[in-house]
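A further point concerns the way the authors explain their paired sequence and structure data. The central task, working out the structure tokens from the amino acid sequence alone, is never made concrete. I therefore recommend that a typical entry be quoted early in the introduction. An entry of this sort, consisting of the sequence and the corresponding backbone structure tokens, reads as follows:
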Amino acid sequence: MARKKKSTKAAFVSFNVIYEDGSQSSNRKIPSELLEMTFGDEDVQAQVRTAIEEQDNRIAEKSGFRKAKIKSIKRA
């Protein structure tokens, strides 16, 4: 019996984030399905920035420590 092919699509896409205070956060994971719903580079950047800011807000709630504003985001 033939086997089904495994999906090679990654569940997450990793991004490196640099903050305005010079700190860096590597391999921040964003669901790949979020990126598939967008059109054009500007939409993708906006979606990624929003998703990472939401992650930062959840981390800040738990730790009580706020991250600086995001300076740049690059795909890892």
User: Anything to note?
Assistant: The helical segments are 32-36, 40-63.
